[in-house]
Amino acid sequence: MIESPLLDKLTGYIGGRWSDSSEGNTFDVYNPATGEVIAKVPSMSEADVVAAVEAGKSALRLTSPYTLETRRTWLEGIRDALREHKEEVGRILCMEHGKPLKEAQGEVDYAAGFFDYCSRHIQALDAHTLTEKPKDCTWTVHYRPIGVAGLITPWNFPIGMIAKKLSAALAAGCPSVIKPASETPLTMVALFRLMDKYVDMPDGMVNLVMGKASVVGKVLCESPDVPMLSFTGSTEVGRKLVVDTAEQVKKLALELGGNAPFIVFDDADLDSAADNLIANKFRGGGQTCVCANRIFVHEKVADAFGEKLAARVNKMTVGNGLTEDVDLGPLINQAGFDKVKRHLEDALANGASLVAGKKPEDLGDGHLFFPPTVITGVTRDMCCYREETFGPLVPMALFRREEEVIDAGNDTEFGLASYVFTNDAERAQRVAAGLRFGHCGWNTGTGPTPEAPFGGMKASGIGREGGLEGLFEFVEAQAVPRGF
Ligand code: ADP
Predict the structure, then answer these.
(1) What SS3 state is found at 241?
(2) 257 lines ligand 1 (CB under 6 A)
(3) Could you read off the pLDDT of 99-110 as tens digits, one per residue?
(4) Would you state the torsion angle of the CA atoms of residues 265, 446, 417, 299, taken in this order, to the nearest 10 degrees?
(5) In total, how many domains does the chain have?
(6) Same domain, 441 and 468
(7) Which one of 57, 64, 267, 370 has the lowest number of neighbouring Cβ atoms within 10 Å?
């Protein structure tokens, strides 16, 4: 079992109190590196989730809103607590997710950055008066908190994803009911421990419920007291939330699946492209929605690029994230492992060839460690091209012409992240404009940052997190014209 000063309470948190499941149910949390159960946490009931919504409602202030200064203090408090406890929060995160310790601790810093950004830019949410006076009135625009928000997060960034949502919700003055993924609830409990101890927020402003998605999701979708859901996860569940909230016309912020193209032209700096691809692709074990999923390499440089990738991949160490110098941890669970294996099998059976890594039959059983793998000769009918692999498999497909690769990049229902490597600035501008993706890195594989808006086009989602756009997600503009 995991021991941590931040996990002395292992329950939900409702209305300012640590709160167990009213029905007494629990579920196990595993360390994917060892297969051990590291904690038991409550699986909360429908009544518990209703209580959390009620608590949120009681913390909402409309007629005498929390001042910008008060909200800024909350954000700064969370930022400081995360920075102060980065090592321990990162250790908990590493143990339940599996990613290398340094990467896990880096994620805590990344999360703190969202609270910092919102605290520094909160002034943007202040009311302002229009300089023009249409209809003989003086017009003031207010940014009102939308109300109690349901925040539902996935397991791949246990602290990063909640930071994006919670920072903007608190900046807006919205209470929230938070549901972490059942694979990684402990990092969230640690965050609540920090908020409980170090940040002076009204009871009910932040509430934590854990347990079955069907139970929590039902209450959040059906309750008229929850006018907004912010969700990061699969497109499949995102679609279900659209349907389940349609009746009440709830506001949805959705960050869904990706199928990122990573395009390498023949004039690119191949070493830099290879370094960026390694950093991008193997982040979180390849289990992020911004990880390159289809690598399009110009045919003239395909062999050279493949060799560079193989040289880098062959030096990587796979193992328990708590061990020093490990580059790649385990996959999150058996289903995740099996999916990557299936994609590799399918590609090899249909004509792709192995450049680095192991054949499917040599992978072994009884563990979740998948070696970094590079294949080439990938075509559009293969599973690894059509679906998001969510694992350390690098599938290379060859191309010849710019228009052809823009079409290929867009040949997916998704539109989250994309990357283009070329030293021709005009070509880069054309390709970025042609790619229907909310994020397009030019000569960089870097992903989102607190300062910039991030989100999907097409079936990758609705809304933005980060940047000023993200800061406005949880407010509704209200115009107040004053006559004379
Ligand atoms: P992943 O494949 O990353 O686990 P999911 O979309 O299955 O993505 O899950 C993301 C988050 O959404 C998790 O917290 C999960 O428990 C939650 N979730 C899954 N199904 C529902 C649902 N029907 N309603 C609300 N939340 C859900």
Answers:
(1) helix
(2) no
(3) 999 999 999 999
(4) 20
(5) 2
(6) no
(7) 64
